[in-house]
Every structure is written in structure tokens, then in C-alpha cells.
Amino acid sequence: TRRLNQTARIPEHNVQILLRRHKPLFTMADSKENELTPITVITGFLGAGKTTLVNYILKEQNQWKICVLENEFGEVAIDDGLVAESLDAPEDLITMDNGCVCCSVRGDLVRTLGQLATRRKDFDAILLETTGLADPAPIVYTVQTNPKMSDNYRIDSIVCLADCKHLEAHLDEAKPDGSVNEALQQVAFADKILLNKVDLVTAEEKSKLEARLRTINKFATVIETEKSRAPLDRILGLNSFNMESILTYDPNFFDDEDEKKIHNLELVQSVGIKFEGSLHAQWFNMFMMDLLRERAADLYRTKGLLSFHGQGDTKFVFQGVHEQINFGPAQKPWKEGEDRENKFVFIGKNLDRAELTKSLMECLYKEGKK
């Protein structure tokens, strides 16, 4: 058995798993999460309708006060100069008639959000538009690990805006080195997928695409829209990035796909695993450290609901992006008589369900073994 330089114990109600480099892997969830300003990260290809969505938020809807941050790397400005070229500091916010504001992020997201912190309670939500950014991990990492950010903000959800008519072609686009293309990554990372321009395809084309999206990312909610008129109450302020969201999945998500004889040809896919029992803390810790050290780049999203031996009725949950994982007790404990069923979600490339299941089940506590 390989010995790791650093393993973890699980004291009562306090779980922290460490990497060899003594860098925290699992960080506890913030108990004051509800007081933090939610950030929704919007990804999606040019032409998917992000500009139209942002303009709808800024100029037409009146229910939400939203601060829109436009990524400086975006190739399309919000509405022909709505964000002026000279806009270089968040104090120069453009305020709209409906109370929403927008500004452009010039390179330093921490600086921009830091300067907005004193005004953050003026907004129901912050929407961060990230044209061309396939992997939101750096944003998630910054918000969760920088004290100035985590004291004021939380990631509420990652939303992928997709063009129903052209998404299939983007998903099929082959990269020269055989790596995962941007469209697959955006779908894989998403908590919500806004399927836009549904009026431009047939019912058969739409259902075929939705079936494919479920294969790539089965836990993302697909919301149909026309002309980017998104129902904001279904994408903002729902805390769908939160660890607890694993509790709301369709139970069928965890069915063994192999039994259904589905041959999955997607480079990126989602795998759900569940089994009863209580995990051995040290064995699970070693498994996760090995997995993330070797496969972090391939694992886009992970979530889990866990029962640990020796932890009484405390139910644990975790969720992560690549190697950055948040971990903590669930809001509600295991009920008396409830089956202690562990649930895991992995979304990534080259995932082997059988191998993952075998390795996880080897982490179960066995009486008499240490």
C-alpha cells in the first residue's frame, strides 16, 4: 500500500483533507453563505445570445437588480458602446433605468469585485459574463479561496448559454491534439444550460440535442429560451452550485448505465455512483488525493454525499471543480432508520465507471480492519 505524507482524521464536525504539499483540498462551507452576494458565471459561444441576454437583463426586465460584469476578453461589447471604451474602474458603473448596473472587468477580477464590495448589498446578484472562457475553474478558485472574495461573495451557479441550432456542430468540432473542445467543456461545467433559439429547430432536432446534453452532463438543468428571454428566477439566486444540490438529483441519475446497454461515445460524460455503508475516513482521503493528483485536469465537476464511520448522524457533502473541492456537513443529518447511501457524481473525460466504483467501495469501513 502506498503511504502518503499527509493523511487526515475526521474529528467531530470538522473535516479537512490535505494534499502532500499541505495545501487544503477540502475547505469547509461558509455558514454565513446566505449573507453573501451570489455570482452567476455565464459561459457560451459567440452567437449563442449572451449579448441579447445581458441587454434583456439591463434594459427590459424590472424584477431583479443585477450588476453585470463584462469580461475584457469578450469580442462583443454589450450593446454598441453600452460599456464605453474609457470605462476602466468599477466606480464608473453605468446605471440603467431599472436599477441594474454594468461595468467592464479590465484584467483583475479581484480588484473589480473588491471595489464593488461596499455596494454589493444594492444588488440581488452579480452576473459575470465570460465570452470565450471554457473553463471557469480560475474564477471559482479565486472567489472561494481569496478572503476578500469569500467574505463577500459566493458562486451561485455556472450557466452555459447554448445556441440550439449550432451547438451540435460545436460539440462535434475536433481539436488537432484530440483534446476536449470548448463547447464540451462549457456543457460539462454547467449547473444550468440555457438552450436558446429553440424556435429555430424542429422538435426532433431539439430532443436529440437534449438527449446528448444529458449524456455529457446529466445533472445540469436544461432551460429552453427564445431570443435569450431567460426566466431569471430559474437561474439566479438558487444556490445550484452548492454542495447540497446533489440531494435534489433525479434518483435515476445513479442507475448503472452499463445495465441499460447504452454505448456512450462522448469524450466527456457524467457518471453517477451510489452504494450503502459508511466510509473509512483515511482510506477515502487517500483515494481522493490519488485521484485528484493523477486526474484533476480530466475531472471538470465532482459532487458527493457521504457517510463516515464514527461520525454519528452527521451527513457530509462535497462539490468541486478540478482539484478545488469544498467539503462539509450537510444541513440535515441522517434520519433515524435512513439508509446510509453514499452518492458520487463525476463529470469529465475518459471516466471508467467500473474502476471508480471498485475504488470507492474499497474505501468502505470494514469491522476489524484499520
Keywords for this entry:
370 residues; alpha/beta; 8-stranded mixed beta sheet; 6-stranded mixed beta sheet
Care to describe what's here?
It is globular, with a radius of gyration of 21 Å. The chain has helices spanning about 50-60, 110-115, 135-145, 145-150, 165-170, 180-190, 205-215, 280-295, 355-360, and strands at about 25, 35-45, 65-70, 95, 100-105, 125-130, 155-165, 190-195, 220-225, 270-275, 300-305, 315-320, 325-330, 340-350. Helices cover about 25% and strands about 25% of the residues. The strands form two sheets. An eight-stranded mixed beta sheet has the order 4-5-3-6-2-7-8-9, sandwiched between helices. Strands 1-13-12-11-14-10 form a six-stranded mixed beta sheet, sandwiched between helices. Mean pLDDT is about 75; it is low at about 1-30, about 70-90 and about 255-265. By secondary structure, the chain is an alpha/beta fold. It contains nine helices and 14 strands. A hairpin with a 5-residue loop joins strand 4 (about 95) and strand 5 (about 100-105).
